[in-house]
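Request: Could I get any protein with tokenized structure?
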Amino acid sequence: MSTILITGATSGLGRYLAFELVRSGHTVLAHGRDRKRTDELVRELCEGGRAEGFVADLASLAQVRDLGARVAAAHPELDVLVNNAGVGTGAPGTGRELSADGHELRFAVDLLAPVALTRTLLPTLQTNSPSRVVNCGSLGQAPLDFDDLEFTSDYSGTEAYCRAKFALAAHTFALARELSGTGIHVNVIHPATYMDTAMVREAGVGPLNTVEDGAAGVLALAVGELGGEATAGFFDGEQPTLAHAETYDREVQDRLDTELDRILKPYGL
């Protein structure tokens, strides 16, 4: 049985995953932003298995770093990280928003947070290899503008979201290459299109799939045979597919990693 950290576990896909994993006998470390909701979730989870809650605002890199440190200290046996939490496109007409650190919000939560959390937990994951990192991405991807990485001009929430998911895929492929031979498998997945989540409803879009539909592929990568075999993969549900062509470009990956290092270094990440 695995010990699994799920970010964004208090609602939507993350909540569904948490219950499925606990029922299967795994230990779930459930992250949430709100203390009350996180505590309530853990109480429910503990009725059927082992769970512990961790609270942090992923829009703050200091809190992301602290989250990783607390998880590593409390659960040195951690062997699976599911980076599920994210910020969607926003309600129609939503303007550019900033994180606690002054970064564009979607760039911060959908990219910087999973990168930072993964970096913090890599020593633990390597100690417990074979281990797995599952990044929840999207088929909606748009190339980065390295001259305006945080989208200060002609802002669009939808475009910002797609740029962050493009960057997450590119980073996943670069990280998987870096970790080749360590026993840490790193993959990125589009769980399902327009699941019935608060993120989708906020955007004014009618859901096309349930969170149950989206969970199958994530579970296969987190604890199933698929995740024990694949690395550097992009999946649409349980099916391997291709991300945006430019996410595989080594020059794009290297330039992105340089920018990530520049941003994260002041936070000790």
In short: Strands lie at 3-6, 27-32, 50-55, 80-83, 131-136, 184-190, 234-236, 239-241. The CA atoms of residues 97 and 132 lie 32 Å apart. The first strand starts at residue 3 and ends at 6. The chain has a mean pLDDT of 96.
